[in-house]
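User: Okay, second chain of the day. Same drill as before: sequence in, structure tokens out.
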Amino acid sequence: MKAGPPVEPNRISVSVVVATLEQQSSTQREKAYGEGRAVMRLLIIEDDRDAADYLAKAFREVGHVADLAADGEEGLAHALDGQYDVLIVDRMLPKLDGLSVIGTLRGKGIETPALILSALGQVDDRVKGLRAGGDDYLPKPYSFSELLARIEVLARRRGSREEMVYRVADLELDRLSHRVTRANQEIDLQPREFRLLEYLMKHAGQVVTRTMLLENVWDYHFDPQTNVIDVHISRLRSKIDKGFAQPLLHTVRGAGYMVREGK
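Assistant: Same drill. Structure tokens below.
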């Protein structure tokens, strides 16, 4: 019998990874994830498109923003330019392997936490990945719940060095409890409104463009040519500014939006 072509060690069948995700419905994933967690922006560097799409879908279902890169060079470019909470990096990638991606980032002083995914799961493989600059190493196949838990730990370590409560004047947003108050009055926001306000307050005093909002709040990498931003800004303004003497959410004509104290 003629032997088939050799199988690359990282070419684990996508059906195995997909199956672990499909075993959990979106409702189960949302319930397991729970409430009171900060929204994370994740970069998935994975050349297996099916596996990458399933991961992105699963992360988005529990409220996170997930960007995709199909090879090492593209992933490195995104990681250098984007502000991510955690990187999820396949080890064996075209153009530039995952360990080289992480090593290049570390050499440039970028310390974004990186979790390595790989079918190479021996002790020596894991040690090599960690010594290359990885913060965690998860062999394939894996369950999404374990991956999510590990990502949360990495983000929490980084987040411990970041501000978890945003304040502008008497407006306060708690990223962990998802509680928003103004002048000690609790404000009820829908999940998208919360993400919008969180992003605006993170960049308080700075102009936030429509493109920035589309990419970081709606996870769009194109302009859908709708008034979705205008509608949400209007609703948000009515909730955080109406009834207060000093407006905090401002429209910067021709540029974007800004949350700041004063006119």
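The chain has two domains: 14-159, 165-259.

User: Thanks, on to the next one.
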